[in-house]
Amino acid sequence: MARRDPMKLRTTNIPLELYDFSRKWLTLLSLAIMVVLFLINAPFGRFAGTNHRQGRHPVGFFNSSLFIVDGLRSWIVMEMVSPLTFIYALFKSPLSFYKVPLPEAFSPQGVLVILFLIHYTNRALINPLRTPSRSTSHVIVPIAGIIFNLAIGYMMGSYSKFAIRKDLFGWAMGIRADQLPSRCVVLRKRAAERKARDEKEAEDDDKKGKEKEGTEKKKPAAGEYYGIPSGLLYEFISYPNYFCEWVEWTGFALAAAPFPIPVDTSSVATLQSSILSALRSIISPWAWKDAIVFPAYAFAPTLSPPWVFVLAEIAVMLPRAYKGHLWYKERFGAAYPKGRKAVIPFVF
């Protein structure tokens, strides 16, 4: 890809600088937010209030009903930002000074573009419109989501014209991994939701029957109903939707770009050494100091947008899954499966 035009050395390429800025700061901020979310709960769903009640968040600002927004509408607005920005960047070609033609539909790049847009069409429109309701959230959540999706859409759209692994096997493996997980979890989630509704209806019917027999019962509180889902990945983890999304985007990244760190798979010890070295660089304060000070174009040059996306998703969703898992265990006590992990089967 042509990052600089030798005939225009004094020309500033603002779209390219925005691409480098987004790639650097989305990575760093996502890692910083991960630490924050391990300390406080993200203010949406069970931790957000509604227009009629105060929330259960330990930070008072997040409990005010004045800042609570409709979950369904805010979701559609913030998720539509990503595909729209993606399309803009795809036509803009920020990584080149020259006009780059759009990829052909059945070229490797074209397939990745289509998969990205199909995913977000379903995520931003089809699935929400088929959902009868969605939990409310604090206004800061859609605002943060819009910023996140602006960066992701711009980076992925910029990169997609040039994205492709050189080896066909890696590309095919990534495409296959990209397609497998989400359908499974969607079906399982709907089954769990049906089961929860059936349990609530059965409980309500039982209470109504007892009331008719003259037994006084307290009327059940209105609001969301939470049950214990079961089956498939729910037997192993509390948040299979998060785990499957990570697998999906890891597959996309495998198809679109080389792995960001050199990995020698000749031995287990060498592989472990490569992974530990990468982790040390993430948590090292000196590495963070250098990353903040260095110009954006010099930041982690092998970390391409698909892998930034994977890293950012894991960083933001991992603490939410952990906190939600603790909440389920506290709510259901001994009834909650003891061997069930939070988000990674058998591990975490």
What is the percent of helical residues? 55-70%
What shape does the CA trace take? Answer: globular
Q: Main sheet? A: 2 strands, antiparallel
Strand order of the largest sheet: 1-2
Let me know the average pLDDT.
79
Structural class: mainly alpha
Written overview of the protein:
There is one protein chain. With 348 residues, the chain is an all-alpha fold. Helices cover 59% and strands 1% of the residues. It contains 10 helices and 2 strands. It has helices at 14-39, 71-92, 108-130, 140-159, 168-179, 181-212, 240-256, 268-283, 285-293, 305-332, and strands at residues 68-69, 137-138. The chain has a two-stranded antiparallel ribbon with strand order 1-2. α2 (71-92) packs antiparallel against α3, α2 (71-92) packs parallel to α4 (140-159) and α5 (168-179) runs antiparallel to α7. The longest helix has 32 residues, at 181-212. The radius of gyration is 23 Å and the shape is globular. It starts with 13 loop residues before the first helix and ends in a 16-residue tail after the last helix. The relative contact order is 0.14. Mean pLDDT is 79; it is low at 212-222.
